[in-house]
Design goal:
- The chain is mostly helical and 375 residues long.
- It folds into three domains: 76 residues, no CATH class; 153 residues, no CATH class; 43 residues.
- The protein is 77% helix and 0% strand.
- α4 crosses α5, α4 crosses α8 and α5 packs antiparallel against α6.
- The longest helix has 42 residues.
- It starts with a helix and ends with a helix.
Length: 375
């Protein structure tokens, strides 16, 4: 490849190409030199006439700066004009979606409060749910009050044809007892609220309870010989008991939610703990089974070396002979002792030269014979 390249460079075509490249480089150098001279001339002109050029540049810069400020002001004005529509659109969006945002914010606050103040928030939730329980009890009592009136009137019309006197007395007792039950239950709820205030204790239900007991006893003592109809009645629900049930349910739910949220936050935060990350990395690595390592004294045992190795005596003998011959070839050099007896010497030759040639020839022959024997 290098010979072909050398021949091409020495050919007419190669010389022409190299000449063209050289001319192009010279032209580029001349053009660069000319451009550099022009730049130097421009710098000299500016330096020598800076007193005239400086005011011109200041004037042009002032005009351009004024135009730039005007453009920026127009851009700011246009951008500011878009702000009121954006605010109006945002206000319309908030007016439409504020209930959802409020509910979301409330849920987020409750979750945060359960995480930070679990027991306290559980008590608050228990109180709120207890209030809802008392409200539901009040609604139920209103329903029971009007339902008992309807049932009492229906029972009266069913019994008036069988025992009119009994039916009238029974209707009177039913209506009065129903009203007193409702008033007593309501007064007991108010009494419990007032007594919950430290330092205050009132009793406004004892008189109503005594009157209610006497009326119930009197109604129970009504006698009749007729086969009268007795309809069921709805019992009034105690407000304190309803509040207690709701409070226990709310407190249990609050504690359950707080524990769940705190456990989730701990687990999520534990994912970014360096100790847990190291443990996870260790668990993902390949475990080292120490039992498979074996005992220290058997480190040198590899593979199937513990199996029985059977070598016959003939094999050992051949291996020993080969080793001995190889050792003789590597370390034994035959240096024969040669006695040369010559006759009449008729040619003029140095005796040392003749003896050295004979020794060399004999050494080569002996070495060749020894190699043949070892082979």
């Amino acid at each position: 490849m290098f010979e072909e390249l050398n021949r091409w460079l020495n050919s007419d075509q190669g010389i022409a190409v190299i000449q063209r490249i050289t001319n192009a480089i010279q032209f580029a150098a001349q053009a660069a030199n000319t451009l550099l001279n022009i730049l130097i001339w421009i710098g000299d002109v500016i330096y020598n006439n800076w007193g005239i050029i400086e005011p011109i540049l200041i004037t042009i810069s002032s005009v351009l700066l004024a135009l730039l400020i005007q453009k920026i002001w127009n851009m700011v004005t246009a951008l500011w004009a878009t702000v009121p529509p954006l605010l109006a659109q945002a206000a319309a969006w908030l007016a439409t979606h504020w209930p959802i945002m409020l509910i979301g914010a409330a849920i987020g606050f409750v979750i945060y409060a359960l995480y930070r103040w679990g027991d306290t928030v559980a008590e608050v939730i228990g109180f709120v749910v207890g209030m809802f329980g008392a409200l539901l009890a009040h609604i139920y009592n209103m329903f029971a009050y009007f339902a008992n009136i309807v049932l009492s009137v229906a029972e009266f019309f069913a019994n008036v044809w069988r025992d009119p006197v009994y039916a009238v007395k029974k209707l009177f007792y039913d209506l009065v007892i129903n009203a007193l039950q409702w008033l007593t239950n309501l007064a007991r709820g108010i009494e419990n609220i007032i007594n919950a205030i430290p330092g205050l204790e009132v009793n406004i239900t004892s008189g109503l309870s005594n009157l209610l007991n006497r009326l119930e006893i009197a109604r129970a003592n009504l006698k009749t010989e007729a086969d009268v109809v007795q309809l069921m009645r709805f019992q009034q629900m105690d407000y304190r008991e309803a509040f207690s049930i709701g409070q226990r349910m709310g407190r249990s739910f609050g504690q359950f939610a707080a524990n769940g949220i705190q456990n989730v936050v701990k687990k999520v935060g534990g994912l970014f703990d360096m100790q847990n990350i190291n443990k996870l990395a260790d668990s993902m690595s390949f475990p080292l089974d120490l039992d498979s390592v074996g005992k220290i004294g058997k480190v040198g045992e590899v593979g199937r070396i513990n199996d029985t190795v059977d070598i016959s005596n003939e094999d050992l003998k051949i291996m020993r002979e080969l080793a001995e011959m190889k050792s003789i070839q590597n370390f034994v050099t035959l240096t024969p002792t040669v006695n040369v007896t010559t006759g009449d010497i008729r040619n003029d030759t140095d005796i040392n030269t003749i003896i050295r040639r004979i020794e060399d020839m004999l050494e080569r022959e002996i070495a060749s014979s020894a190699q043949g024997v070892f082979s």
